[in-house]
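Customer escalation, tier 2.

The customer says the design service returned an amino acid string that "doesn't look like it belongs to this structure." They asked us to rerun it and document both sides in this ticket. The original structure tokens are below, unchanged.
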């Protein structure tokens, strides 16, 4: 397991956008907006600290929402984390970013600010809202100027998969510090993201070539190969090999669900993974995280249950994306629908 433990913390549902692929509002557009108060935030931090002491891990928070800045107690939280020396990143929108906001974030310990670009201008604005594309690019220099890393994330679906190379060029030109993409997880209302295994492998092949060309040309963007199917791709190309003398039944990489990640919602509900609908494991205001980690969360660590991956030599390093598999079939342990490997 990693030395740190990642808590993806949704402190509010309030948001300036209603993105078409958002899992917060996809099931119910009339969802009641929830947010955490100062007292609740203190309780969350205390519970997370207790967890990390119990398991000898360092806490790391990914503060998100909705747009976390829209929580009226957002700055109280950042100051609380600063007082405890706990680093954090923000996953949010571009609309409330200013030089002063970035300065305060940096001063309080923010390391990264993640924005999204989900296509070229027309496609991105269709996913999010008109004008979102331009303001997102406009805010990258603002974030970087403060000393915070500007991260761009793309959600890949059948709608924008052919635009990922163009998005890469856009992100590199904007000199974002990090670029990554991950696949859309279907909601219960739509199951097909319109990407065959062959089509997805072809995307990785195209991006691998483009990433290497960019790096060769000295670009300043780091390409985070977030999707675990990159491991399979690089295994086939000989860029990744299974280390010698590995321990049997040990997990070395792949999906973080069940080993170094939990999600906390504004209601206090705790999920093993926010993108897995049926992964609620408790409530942070009612349960001790250190306890549910060895009870309710254990079911996500039964790696022998993976229907396809358990037969694969890459089980300990890959496992694809169980969230995508769960979104399509309702089964966390089902085969990743974009995995092209025969086992």
């Amino acid at each position: 397991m990693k030395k740190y433990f990642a808590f993806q913390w949704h402190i509010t549902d309030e948001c300036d956008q209603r993105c078409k692929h958002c899992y917060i509002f996809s099931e119910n557009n009339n969802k009641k907006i929830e947010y955490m108060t100062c007292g609740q935030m203190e309780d969350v931090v205390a519970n997370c600290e207790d967890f990390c002491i119990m398991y000898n891990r360092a806490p790391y928070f990914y503060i998100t929402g909705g747009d976390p800045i829209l929580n009226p107690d957002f700055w109280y939280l950042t100051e609380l984390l600063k007082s405890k020396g706990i680093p954090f990143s923000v996953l949010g929108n571009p609309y409330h970013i200013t030089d002063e906001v970035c300065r305060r974030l940096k001063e309080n310990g923010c390391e990264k600010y993640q924005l999204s670009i989900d296509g070229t201008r027309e496609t991105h604005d269709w996913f999010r809202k008109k004008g979102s594309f331009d303001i997102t690019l406009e805010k990258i220099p603002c974030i970087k100027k403060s000393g915070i890393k500007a991260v761009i994330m793309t959600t890949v679906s059948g709608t924008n998969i052919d635009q990922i190379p163009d998005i890469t060029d856009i992100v590199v030109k904007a000199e974002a510090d990090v670029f990554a993409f991950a696949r859309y997880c279907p909601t219960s209302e739509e199951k097909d993201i319109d990407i065959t295994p062959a089509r997805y492998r072809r995307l990785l092949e195209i991006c691998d070539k483009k990433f290497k060309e960019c790096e060769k040309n000295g670009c300043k963007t780091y390409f985070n190969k977030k999707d675990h199917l990159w491991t399979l791709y690089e295994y086939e190309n000989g860029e990744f090999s299974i280390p010698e003398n590995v321990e049997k039944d040990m997990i070395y990489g792949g999906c973080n669900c069940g080993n170094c990640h939990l999600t906390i919602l504004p209601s206090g509900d705790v999920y093993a993974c926010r993108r897995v609908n049926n992964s609620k494991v408790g409530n942070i205001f009612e349960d001790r995280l250190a306890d549910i980690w060895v009870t309710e969360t254990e079911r996500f660590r039964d790696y022998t249950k993976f229907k396809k991956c358990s037969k694969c030599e890459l089980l300990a390093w890959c496992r694809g994306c169980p969230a995508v598999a769960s979104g399509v079939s309702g089964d966390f342990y089902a085969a990743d629908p974009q995995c092209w490997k025969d086992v």
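Tier 2 assessment: The sequence is consistent with the input. The two ends are 27 Å apart (CA to CA). The mean pLDDT is 93. Sent an explanation to the customer and offered a walkthrough call.
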